């Protein structure tokens, strides 16, 4: 019997069972794969739907942002309009208040205008009176100017007469000399008559000549009216040759020193100092522009001119 069992056991076949197991595993694997594929498909659809939803939400957000910006701009415009209206309202209120104040001040302003009108009329009358006085004063000034010019012309004529008298007396006193002559309204002495060459010290002959001139001038001054304010101008001139000595560095210094020497001598002889004027011109005012000895001699001179102060 034991032998029979051993034979029976050895004849059992396990392959079908193995195939069944493999089939079962295959089915399970296929099922799992299908489940995975389905889950991936569902997940893909879900993700795609989510992206579309997100895009829609983004678009909506953009629209809302644009609407918000428009609303903010509209709000700003409305706020500006409101501020403008408030300003206009305030201005209108101020103008209304000012108008009320102005209306209240109308009587006072009318009174002020009336007063100013009266003042303006008074000023106009004063201005017209002032213009009349001004015209009268202008006429008086013109009359006075004419009288003054006539008086000055008369004094000038008087002075010319006394100048002619003075020159006539000098001419009679000094005689006809080539080195003493009348040039225009001046009595001209050649420098050699009064001074050595290059010196401002009077020579004895020059002192004698000037002494006679002083006596003639004093005699004539006694006849000149007190209201005729006269002076005797003493002008020194040199030739154009330059000079440079220890005492004089230029012709201007020499001509000035000679004019001063003549004035000092006349003062010593009694001529009032306030009636004398000394001036040096150097070589700047020649009588002769030539270069000859005669021209240079003519230009070295002392001129006396009886003039009005």
Automatic annotation (TrEMBL):
* InterPro entries found in the cross-reference section: Bact_OuterMem_StrucFunc (IPR050330), OmpA-like (IPR006665), OmpA-like_sf (IPR036737)
One matching Pfam family, short form?
A: OmpA
Q: By its UniProt entry, which SUPFAM superfamilies does this protein fall under?
A: OmpA-like
Q: Which GO terms of the cellular component aspect does the record hold? A: membrane
Q: Which domain of life is it from?
A: Bacteria
- Can you give the residue ranges of the OmpA-like domain? 183-309
- Cited PROSITE patterns: OMPA_2 (PS51123)
Which PANTHER family does the protein's record reference?
LIPOPROTEIN YIAD-RELATED (PTHR30329:SF21), STATOR ELEMENT OF FLAGELLAR MOTOR COMPLEX (PTHR30329)
Q: What is this protein called?
A: Peptidoglycan -binding protein
State the taxonomy lineage.
Answer: Bacteria, Pseudomonadati, Pseudomonadota, Alphaproteobacteria, Rhodospirillales
């Amino acid at each position: 019997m034991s032998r029979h069992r051993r034979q029976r056991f050895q004849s059992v076949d396990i392959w079908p069972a193995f195939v069944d197991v493999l089939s079962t595993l295959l089915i399970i694997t296929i099922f799992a794969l299908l489940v995975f594929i389905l889950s991936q498909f569902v997940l893909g659809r879900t993700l795609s739907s989510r992206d579309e939803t997100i895009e829609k939400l983004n678009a909506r957000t953009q629209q809302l942002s644009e609407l918000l910006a428009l609303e903010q701009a509209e709000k700003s415009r409305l706020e500006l309009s409101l501020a403008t209206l408030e300003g206009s309202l305030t201005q209108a209120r101020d103008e209304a208040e000012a108008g009320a104040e102005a209306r209240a001040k109308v009587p006072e302003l009318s009174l002020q205008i009336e007063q100013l009108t009266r003042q303006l009329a008074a000023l106009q009358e004063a201005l017209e009176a002032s213009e009349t006085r001004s015209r009268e004063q202008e006429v008086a000034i013109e009359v006075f100017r004419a009288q003054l010019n006539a008086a000055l012309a008369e004094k000038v004529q008087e002075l010319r007469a006394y100048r002619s008298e003075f020159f006539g007396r000098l001419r009679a006193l000094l005689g006809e000399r080539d080195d003493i002559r009348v040039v225009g309204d001046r009595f001209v002495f050649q420098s050699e008559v009064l001074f050595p060459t290059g010196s401002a010290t009077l020579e004895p002959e020059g002192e004698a000549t000037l002494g006679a001139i002083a006596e003639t001038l004093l005699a004539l001054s006694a006849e000149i009216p007190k209201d005729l304010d006269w002076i005797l101008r003493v002008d020194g001139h040199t030739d154009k040759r330059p000079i440079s000595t220890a005492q004089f560095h230029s012709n201007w210094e020499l001509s000035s020193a000679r004019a001063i020497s003549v004035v000092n001598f006349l003062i010593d002889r009694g001529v009032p100092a306030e009636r004398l004027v000394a001036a040096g011109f150097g070589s700047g005012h020649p009588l002769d522009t030539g270069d000859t000895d005669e021209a240079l001699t003519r230009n070295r001179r002392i001129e006396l001119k009886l003039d009005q102060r």
